[in-house]
Predict the structure.
Amino acid sequence: MVTIDKQQSGVWPATGYEARPWVRAGNEVASRRAKLQARGDYRAAVPPLIAAAPVALPAEVIALADDASQELARFDAEAGTMAAPFASILLRSESASSSEVENLTSSAKQVALAEIGESKSGNARLVVANVRAMTAAIALSDHLDEHSIIAMHDALLRDTAPEYVGYWRNEQVWIGGGSISPHAAAFVPPHHTRVSSLMADVVAFARRTDVPVLIQAAIAHAQFETIHPFPDGNGRTGRALLQGMLRHGGLTRNVTVPVSAGLLYDTDAYFRALTEYRAGNTSAIVTAVAEASFAAIRNGRVLVRDIQDAAARWDDLIMARSDSSVHKAKSYLLRQPVVNAKTLAGELQISDVAAQKAIDRLVDAEVLTQTNTGRRNRVWQAPEILAALDAFGARARRRRG
């Protein structure tokens, strides 16, 4: 259970450190100074076991988390009753924001192009991979264990870094500092021999039923990032885990509330909160996730309104029988605003000819515009939806600018 911390400190067992020997490869390409620094022992983190740790937080932090939880559930219920495919829209928005926390930026158009295999942007393809990871997190939320976390990571990196998926890391990693050793790093996660037992422990914590869901998800996320169980993709996988826990705990049932968009608003505060967590202060990360939830909901409501306005305008522009393919195409464009005839035909299970006719009607109504020239390999976009998605991203990162 969560108790009120009368000392107002959010006391939590702090991360310890241990000396570990570093063996140089001998063929490093670096300055003499860097090579001198890469000698002797380095200090790796030793995170505490938290499966049974008592959770004590200041009263105002508990109240903040409770308020954020109510708002998350309310927004989830609102979006779940709407006709537009907001589950897909918000899932992609969360995935794009989580990627951008790692400085993997891409426009809505490039991400939509990547969805149909037409983007040359590496970052866009990574965002699409993050959509898969988020989808896996939601699908596996009822069976949260080490295997499901590895599956989330696999969905993220199977195409771009298959050598890293399917297992916990088997090497030392570090954050910041030089590339040849961890001696000057900003943070050195635990030695890889500790990862398996630490991940079993964080999963046990995530299964507790005596901690409110948002508080539990925030702490589990911070512990996951401290462990850094994979060679790459830890941030995105950790935020996918957070979403999976919100779904598992019932705070979200219909949509993926784009909490990462709230974290993106003030990434410095987010990273400081992770650092404070390692020092034994859970209040900062719970506060960061709660405030990110409020920001995400405010931003998400604007996105929902923009999408609804576009859909209403399309309905006024296009008159057709209720069973016409053009209506199905309009609905599909709300979640996939870049299409070609082949992908539209496959999605709607209609012929290529019928798909092209639907596209032509949407072009005539100025719902779609062609993105490329010529008659071969044509691609069309829905500018209003792309603008709404880009505006969502701009609002999320406004404070960073």
User: Anything to note?
Assistant: The beta strands are 2-4, 16-20, 42-46, 55-57, 338-339, 369-370, 380-381. The chain has a mean pLDDT of 92. DSSP finds 16 helices and seven strands in the chain. The first strand starts at residue 2 and ends at 4.
